[in-house]
Amino acid sequence: MASPQLPFVPAGLSWEWEGARGLVLLDVMAAKWGVWPEAGGGRTVWFQCRGDDSG
Fold first, then answer.
1. pTM greater than 0.70
2. Residues 6+ apart with CB under 8 A from 5
3. CB 16 within 8 A of CB 33
4. Which of 12, 23, 34, 40 has the greatest count of CB atoms below 10 A from its CB?
5. Residue among 21, 48, 37, 38 nearest 9 (CA)
6. Residues 7, 43: contact at Cβ < 8 Å?
7. Angle, vertex CA 42, rays to CA 40 and CA 43, nearest 5
8. Alpha carbon of 15 to those of 8, 11, 20, 28: distances in Å?
9. What residues pair up with 44 in beta bridges, in sequence order?
C-alpha cells in the first residue's frame, strides 16, 4: 500500500533505523533535492548534483 506522506529526512535519525537511509545519502551528496506527488499516485524525487568547485 502506498503512503500519501511525502518523504523527508527525519531529525535525529539513527543508523539502526531501517527507513530514509537513501534520503540521508541524497541530502549529503546533492546540491538540492525535493519531492512532489504525482497526479495518479506515487511521487517523484528529484536532485541536482554538486558541481566541481575547482573552476
1. no
2. none
3. no
4. 23
5. 21
6. yes
7. 115
8. 16, 12, 10, 15
9. 36
Computed on alpha carbons and rounded to an integer, the radius of gyration of the chain in Å comes to: 14
Copy the grid coordinates of residue 5. 506522506
CA distance 8 to 15: 16
User: Chain-centre distance of CA 50, in angstroms?
Assistant: 15
22-35 tens-digit pLDDT: 887 888 888 999 98
User: Could you write out the DSSP letters of every residue in the chain?
Assistant: ---SSPP---TT--TT--SSHHHHHHHHHEEEEEEEE-TTS-EEEEEEEPPPTT-
